[in-house]
């Protein structure tokens, strides 16, 4: 169906591609958790006189790791939901488009 020169409907292939890209992105972000883990700073790394600063850096890196894990999971879950729903949404979109087209004729 179209309205003038603009198509009405959902491009299922584009939505499926976006879902796949989101899952890939989630994997890339999750890989960075290990990169951060490999660069942790402990109080011993900063020296006795800078133990508090070492603790602060270490805690900050732990927070970054958790943020990356959370971001990765949220992105993956969003991609999964989009991928799972693209078929049902496409069907509903097609039916609604047909009904609208019939009503317009």
Describe the structure.
This protein has 105 residues and is mainly α. The chain has a domain at 15-83. It contains 3 helices and 2 strands, in the order ββααα. The chain has helices at 12-37, 43-46, 51-104, and strands spanning 2-3, 6-7. Strands 1-2 form a two-stranded antiparallel sheet.
Topology (elements, then pairings):
Elements: E1 2-3, E2 6-7, H1 12-37, H2 43-46, H3 51-104
Antiparallel strand pairs: 1-2
Across the major sheet, the strand order is 1-2
Number of helices: 3
| Uncertain spans | none
User: Roughly how many Å apart are the termini?
Assistant: 12 Å
Q: Please indicate the percent range of residues in DSSP E strands (runs of 2 or more).
A: under 5%
> How many strands, which pairing sense, and closed or not: the largest β-sheet?
2 strands, antiparallel
- Give me the Rg, rounded: 24 Å
Helix/strand-derived category reads: mainly alpha
Using the alpha-carbon principal axes, give the shape: rod-shaped
Q: What level of helicity do the residues show?
A: over 70%
Which descriptors would you attach to this protein?
mainly alpha; two-stranded antiparallel sheet
Quick summary of this structure?
A hairpin with a 2-residue loop joins strand 1 (2-3) and strand 2. The protein has helices at 12-37, 43-46, 51-104, and strands spanning 2-3, 6-7. With 105 residues, the protein is mainly alpha-helical.
């Amino acid at each position: 169906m179209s309205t003038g020169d603009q198509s009405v409907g959902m491009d299922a292939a584009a939505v499926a591609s976006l879902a796949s890209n989101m899952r890939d992105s989630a994997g890339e972000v999750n890989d960075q958790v290990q990169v951060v883990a490999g660069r942790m700073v402990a109080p011993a790394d900063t020296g006795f006189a800078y133990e508090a600063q070492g603790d602060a850096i270490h805690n900050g890196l732990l927070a970054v790791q958790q943020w990356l894990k959370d971001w990765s999971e949220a992105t993956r879950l969003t991609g999964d939901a989009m991928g799972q729903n693209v078929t049902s949404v496409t069907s509903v979109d097609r039916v609604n488009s047909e009904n609208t087209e019939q009503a317009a004729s």
